Model the fold of this input.
Amino acid sequence: MLKIAFILVLAYLLGSMVPGYWLGKVFYHKDIRTEGSGNIGTTNAFRILGPVPGTIVLCLDILKGALAASLPALFGWHHVNVMLVGLFAILGHTFSIWIGFKGGKAVAVSAGVLSVYNTPLFLMVCAIFITCLILFSMVSVASMVGFTFATCMSVFYYHDWILSIVAITLTIFVFYRHRKNIGRIFTGTESTIPFGLVYWL
Ligand code: G3P
Done:
């Protein structure tokens, strides 16, 4: 029991790390929570800080999810459920101890957890995500489609009930977190990235 509690707290603390916020503060003297979309994730880091810090934030957010999900294997405690540990990292990212229990939209960190839990599904989600970026030029659309795809695959293809419950819950949560983006998509004011069809049309 103590082992499980230890690993869950460690995963939460890992997920709590906010590279987007820290990079902005330390190297650019900017608080990305008060600029652009106000999100601490990759897209807003790209938008406010630039492509290099944006890429670093993407890698670190994915990495912290993957690292958290690897904790049971790293400690050799294979009885601790990987998805449960990953969920605590996602909780840490969305309710970070470092920024007043606020946080991001859980996209990259969830991808990191999935990369360890089910690598083939992670690769498929990446392919869907990139395809949506090419078609729509909106990270928010790609993120929501990616989560929906992962949920459908978990329920209808993998029949993995743990993954299915987590995926359904996270998809609802991710749509909720993207509610402002959804409003902007419908009014045609959602920001596009300089990549893909919609941006160039
Ligand atoms: O991962 C977040 C992304 O889907 C949208 O980010 O900053 O445009 O709200 P943002």
